[in-house]
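Subgroup meeting minutes
Present: P.N., E.W., G.H.
Scribe: E.W.

1. P.N. recapped why we're keeping a running log of single-chain structure predictions: easier to compare across weeks, and new members can see raw inputs and outputs side by side.
2. G.H. added today's entry (356 aa).
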Amino acid sequence: MSKSHRRDTPVSRRGLLGLAALAALPVAGFGYSQMKSDGTPSGTSATKGPGKTPVSEPSAAPTPEPFAQAKPGEKLGGTVPFVPGKALFGSYLGLDGLEYAEALALRKKQLGRDQRIVHVFYAWRDNLPSSIPYLPKGAIPMVSWRGPKHETILSGESDSYIAASARHLRDLGRPTMLRWGWEMNGDWYAWGGFKNNQNAQGYVDCYQHLWKIFQKQGADNVSWVWSPNWNSAPTEAWNRMEAYYPGDEFVDWVGVSGYNLHKEDPATLFDPVYQKYSPSKPLIITEIGSVDRGGTSKADWITAFTKYIEQRPAFGGVTWFDTDTHPSYPERWRIDTDPASTAAYRAMARNPRFGG
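Output recorded in log:
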């Protein structure tokens, strides 16, 4: 999600996420950092008012068959391997009154399974983790790391900090997904082209610069996730998501954020990215959620999404945005807002398609 619903007054870390006890896992990047200032969620241009349908990028008819084929000696997905037809299942958890370990335990009890991906957020100047003690056995951390303005990276002034961050993730000693500078094709983040003189190439240069430093530090346990928003804001030629693509050499997974906020169906949110990148890269839905419009609307959307993923083998992961801790907004993104939604989510989690 973008910085939608952000409030400008400081928010305590505990008040934001209920994660204060996790000193080893800084959370300054969570919550308000994912909010747009005008109260509109991810995928909505700041020029649109709340409740209006965002302008999506053109979507062709579904083409679910193509997916990346490994070349001899190549392991698709990097150190987090991609298995066609199997999706790693996980979430970002921010549940009111619960520490992250407690939230993981609650979801395990409800779903009858552990998370395979545990999504965590960090601010640009946070210390990235060298250990995450509460991870379930076999779970993969996905670290979403905020960025600064392009010049802060390209000037070289941050090189020593970037190198230290690389060593921290290296020292995790386990396959790790790194999602740096997500939703760069939106107009709401400091690292996006919009806030850097409408310069998409600057983002590419930053991404490649980080990648090269991580390689020099031996952080070869990191799988790099390039993760645009499902549609671009503004919808101008310079801001097309493909203008931000760093190149196949630098990307292990292609991610995408998309929310059912204005009754978007899954194909509207995700097919443009699927069609463009599935022939060359495994895909992961890095942020997803659905608004509850009463009745079984939320449960029905989760069920429809499950069927959608069953039909698209290139999606190798899904991480839900499972939280109720965001301030100053009406939507509750957590999955257990009503029994029907909980049941639909549990059925999805137990579906063999999500057995990665």
